Amino acid sequence: MESLDLSNPTVLAAIAAVAALIVVGIIIGLVRGRKPKELPREPPPPPPEALAEEHPKIEVEARAEPTQPIQLEDLVPPAPPPPAPPADLGAFRSGLKSTRGNLISRLAVVFRRDRELDVSILDEVEEVLITADVGVHTTQRILEALRTQMNEGQLSSAADAWEAIREEARSILASSGQGLAIDQSPTVILVVGVNGVGKTTTIGKLASRFDRQGKTLLLGAGDTFRAAAVTQLEVWGRRVGCEVVKGKDRADPGSVIFDTIEKAKAEGIDIVIADTAGRLHTKVPLMDELTKLGRTVEKALGRPADHVLLVLDATTGQNAIQQTQLFKDALPLSGIVLTKLDGTAKGGVILGIVDQHQVPIEFIGVGEKVEDLKPFGAEAFLQALFESPEALEPSEDTSSAN
């Protein structure tokens, strides 16, 4: 084999060309070797049918269109349940049993089903309402409402007249039963009333109610003229677990209540309930002393008493309306507690008191137990009092009114 002549320029050029080609090839190979490798692709998920066959417990979402079209009524929300009966309705029914026999059963006779309505019926309604201690003022208001609706042709049956009386009573009681606001510390409740209506017992029951609500209490024995009242209040204090502030026998009631409020302010007490001496509402000097007591509370508290509750005995009937007027003249009454409602047929006086004096009923007493002092509820009262004639018990028929 002949040797290459390296001195020949043509040979050297050919060798250089071949070497250049080799270098280019090597560079291209290196570049291709650095290209990142593709990641393996995940296989596509199996169809739902295959998944269900492999795992029978997995339900496959149905893809078929619903066979029944959606109806418009299916989109309407269900009707709300009927309203629950008012709280303590049973207690109200029991407490108003005598009143219902005296008032409602007699109205049931007037509004018997087969009777045709005419103006003459109003005379009988007036007699029933007056004798049930509803009061002359309130009776005339109810009669005027009936007369107006009769003249306008709105009453076509006895049932309509019956409902019209119920609605007028609802309008009268609209402001009652709103509850006592306890939004000051201390909140001062001054309890007033004549002798024998149950003031001290009412204070004890109120204290027990507030204690169950987690309120701290302080009782003021302002009835310093009757030792038995102070002793009774101390018994309630021990039962509830709250302190009673008292003075010496025949001490100034104002000083006792002043000290009670000062103590409550110093100790951060929530509620002060102050007893007062029972007063004969016909005695002007005693009522003047009550006005003075109101000023003492304002001096100690920096504002008038938050609540002035008048305790009335339901068995006194129309006399309770007179008492309300005289106590209202002495102090700004904020509410009424009507006791002994279960022992009288004169419960209709509630309508007369509220209508004539615009003082709301806050509590009623329907028994001797602590829990028998009930917050007044207008709807429960109306439902229990104006029971439809068909719902009256046999013992509550018209014979009970005789």
Describe this structure in words.
The protein is of the alpha/beta class and 402 residues long. The protein has 14 helices and 8 strands. Among the domains are: 89-172, Up-down Bundle (Four Helix Bundle (Hemerythrin (Met), subunit A)), CATH 1.20.120.140; 187-377, Rossmann fold. Strands 3-2-4-1-5-6-7-8 form an 8-stranded mixed β-sheet, with helices on both faces. α5 runs antiparallel to α6 (136-151). The radius of gyration is 44 Å and the shape is elongated. Mean pLDDT is 80; it is low at 57-65 and 389-402.
What's the quaternary structure here? single chain
Alpha carbon gyration radius = 44 Å
Distinct helical segment count? 14
CATH class of one domain: Alpha Beta
The CATH architecture of one domain comes to: 3-Layer(aba) Sandwich
Global morphology: elongated
CATH topology of one domain: Rossmann fold
CATH homologous superfamily classification of one domain: P-loop containing nucleotide triphosphate hydrolases
Spatial ordering of strands, largest sheet: 3-2-4-1-5-6-7-8
Give, in order, the helices and strands: HHHHHHHEHEHEHEHEHEHEEH
Strand fraction: 5-15%
Number of strands: 8
Structural class: alpha/beta
What can be said about the biggest beta sheet?
A: 8 strands, mixed
Roughly how many Å apart are the termini?
A: 157 Å
Which residues sit in consecutive blocks of at least 5 with pLDDT less than 50? 57-65, 389-402
- Mean of pLDDT: 80
Helix content: 40-55%
